[in-house]
Specification:
There is one protein chain. The chain is α/β, with parallel strands linked by helices. The protein has 2 domains: 2-108 and 330-348, no CATH class; 135-295, no CATH class. The protein is 43% helix and 22% strand. The protein has helices spanning 19-22, 40-50, 110-115, 117-155, 158-172, 215-230, 284-289, 291-327, 332-348; strands at 2-5, 7-10, 13-16, 28-33, 57-61, 69-74, 79-83, 99-103, 183-185, 189-192, 195-198, 205-210, 235-240, 247-253, 258-263, 275-277. The strands form 4 sheets. A 6-stranded mixed β-sheet has the order 1-5-6-7-4-8, covered by helices on one side. The chain has a 6-stranded mixed β-sheet with strand order 9-13-14-15-12-16, with helices on one face. A hairpin with a 4-residue loop joins strand 6 (69-74) and strand 7 (79-83). The protein is flat, with a radius of gyration of 22 Å. The model has no long low-confidence stretch (mean pLDDT 93).
């Protein structure tokens, strides 16, 4: 199974690239609607388990709770099931034809919820405030990363790096001489309550781009996007949302069982195989001129990331309280019957 995040928090709120997956005309999507604790993740887990041996499955996890599923894609069946509630609100584009809404709110007891009305409203507002505070730290993180990136870009030896990219392509990317490959955008790395973390990228041939200044690895991945697709391969691009959404952070080429993974001051991924050290692609004198500024920025980046994670953790704690209110009001016997019905329906497709 391939694992991604559905999206992540940015200075502009939650962002996701999943729309292009939902609205592709070769798939049918079940959009789950309901409050916290109404069984959305549990239903998707059962769907995943049921079809794990017969299908090629992509799992999309929640950035607020890395253990919770936000979407399941059954690639062979052409079926998607996704949480369509805030902050990732999805609605049908072709209702009933390519997408349908599953209303889990039909299975909760309103009278039970009303008993906790005041507490639910207070907790919802408190959860929102912690997310707003988190976004303020995210804004600071994006600004710091953008500053580091700008220093890197001004010191980048593009001619030297371009030559290396061309040699890398000739050595590692065979020319298929077929149609132009497609690019899809998915999230491998996002901000979570445990810091900025990455899903495991499950490809045999991995190249780690060790880059303390962001700019060189971004430059290489963008160049490779064109080179690789021109050679006929589809690729997956994972962008970093915490540098004003300008960075290419990782790319994967499934057909070649290959991934290029950046290792930066933000994601702190420890290379365990082939490592490309990007320090040789920067003019040392230009980097040295900004040494004090860079040291300050990297320390501030670490502090801001820690604070953003703490805010997300507090928001998660409050969300758990909200879930308990709804769990007590949901008829899970009916939810289980609905899940069985959905499984039978999917099997017939």
């Amino acid at each position: 199974m391939n694992c991604y995040f559905l999206g992540g928090v940015t200075s502009e709120g939650f962002k996701t690239d999943f729309n292009e997956t939902i609205y592709s005309e070769d798939k049918f999507t079940y959009i789950l609607k309901g409050g916290p604790g109404t069984g959305k993740s549990t239903i998707m887990k059962k769907i995943s388990e049921t079809f794990s041996e017969s299908d090629d499955i992509d799992l999309y996890y929640c950035s607020s709770d890395e253990k919770s599923l936000d979407a399941v894609v059954l690639n062979k069946k052409g079926i998607i099931m996704v949480d369509g509630t805030s902050p990732h609100i999805f609605d049908p584009k072709y209702p009933g034809i390519k997408q349908t809404i599953v209303h889990l709110g039909d299975f909760w007891n309103i009278e039970t919820l009303k008993k906790n009305e005041e507490d639910i409203i207070i907790a919802t507002k408190e959860n929102s405030e912690w997310h707003k505070r988190c976004r303020r730290y995210i804004t600071a993180i994006s600004s710091i990363n953008s500053d580091i990136y700008s220093i890197g870009l001004s010191a980048l030896d593009k001619n030297k790096l371009s030559g290396f990219i061309e040699r890398f392509t000739k050595k590692n990317i065979p020319d298929k001489k077929s149609n132009i490959g497609k690019v899809s955008f998915k999230k491998y790395s996002v901000m979570t309550q445990n810091g900025y973390i990455s899903q495991k990228i499950p490809y045999k041939n991995k190249f780690f781009l060790s880059d303390n200044l962001f700019a060189g690895s971004d430059f290489m991945l963008r160049k490779l996007e064109k080179y690789i697709t021109n050679r006929g391969y589809d690729i997956i691009v994972s962008k970093c949302e915490l540098c004003n959404n300008i960075l290419y952070e990782h790319i994967a080429i499934p057909e070649l069982n290959m991934a290029l993974i950046s290792s930066t001051p933000l994601n702190k991924i420890e290379p365990d195989v082939t490592k490309i050290n990007f320090s040789r692609f920067y003019f040392n004198n230009k980097v040295s001129e900004k040494k004090e500024r860079l040291n300050f920025s990297k320390k501030a980046l670490s502090n801001m990331t820690d604070e953003a994670a703490k805010c997300m953790k507090k928001a998660k704690e409050i969300h758990d309280k909200l879930e308990n209110f709804y769990i007590s009001a949901v008829d899970f016997e009916k939810i289980n019957k609905l899940t069985d019905k959905l499984i039978k329906e999917i099997k017939k497709r």
